[in-house]
Amino acid sequence: MLSEIFKAYDVRGLYGKTLTDEIAYRIGKAFVSFLKCRDVVVGYDMRLSSPKLAKAFAKGVNELGADVTDIGMVSTDALYFASGFLKKPAVMFTASHNPGNYNGIKFCREDAIPINSDTGLEKIREILEKNDYRKNKTNKPGKTIKKDILENYFEHVKKFIDIKKLRNLKIAVDAGNGMAGKIVPLVYKNLPVKIIPLYFKLDGTFPNHPADPSKYENLKDLQKAVKQEKCDFGMAFDGDADRIFFVDGKGSIINSSLISALIIKNILNKNKNSNNKQKMIYNLVCSKIVPETIQKFGGKAIIERVGHSFIKDTMRKTNSIFACEHSAHYYYKDNFNADSGIISSLIVSEIVSKENKKLSSLLKEFQKYHKIEETNFEVKDKDKKIEEIESIYKKQNPRNISKLYGLTFDFGNWWFNVRPSNTEPLLRLNLEADSEKLMQEKKEELVEIIENY
Fold first, then answer.
1. Residue 83's pLDDT is what?
2. Which residues are catalytic?
3. What is this structure's pTM?
């Protein structure tokens, strides 16, 4: 059962079946045993099972002699902030965009340094399997202390913009019944922004639509609200509010690489007097416009594989000031190298305000390429399928082949990446071309190979 729930970056499973209160309790003990820590910050989302799992985890932590700082129901980026602000390891109970019957745990060391399968999750799992728990030397049970960090968090996220530059904006926000429904009203309180709320009631059953804005069918209500209310633009968050997607004032969905380019230009222009080239990271399936924009505005672009723990680790090693992923994660050095949908929402609001232009107009300079949305395919033998694809496209004189993560072929006027899912029998396809015609042609070609070859 443990092999089912311990993933590459976190723990995730069906509540009551593969992930139970008992397992959470044991994970609490294993977490303390692994880190030999004296205090753990615990946060959780609005899922029905989250408070119960968090309480069970805290019991395990306390039994091993460590204290718990319970920060209550928060967004994941607020949990990361708490880890950095309090300089303590932390865990977040959330299953992000998954359906309501799922739950999970995200882990980090102090300063929001992520723990993944390579940096501790496998060792935590081994401790669980062996029941090899090591108490703290005090040999006294720990205690649980409730602490509200939200005021500190709100003060922190607002430091990323010049509030005086905000003008009267009207923004539709779809919280998807997730944590943005609690956080957004408090962050934007007293700012010159009118929020048109959609599904702000916290409800872990997700009665309106899944809290997964990466699937565009879940953005229909937001698109409609933006047009009906004549909003400047719209924003949609996933369940734990660490990711954010945008639609423009016409209700058109914006690819996350374009938002990345907009934020990159803004950050680099603010830092243009720096003596050193500011480093920025993008993952290997972002649009080509992302590294091009970094270079155009004086930065140094660094490519990394997909995955928040890899991104954050490289940010620390290279002292990068910003990073982005195609999945709408945006990371900031001054946010303990962690991602934040809320900070990104404030930055885009500031850009639209100070430029005094429509969001669609601001994005035009970045609309050079034609990119498909990440597409998933059920494949029984993922490795064999990737080998087949490699054998076909090797014969077509590619400009470059990369195996940084999965398989990437670059032909100059188009490129594609196929990579295996860490958790499901899926292959994920990303593809971009210089023209829409070429993009469609190559997409059809690859779909045929993946599904039928």
1. 98
2. 96
3. 0.96
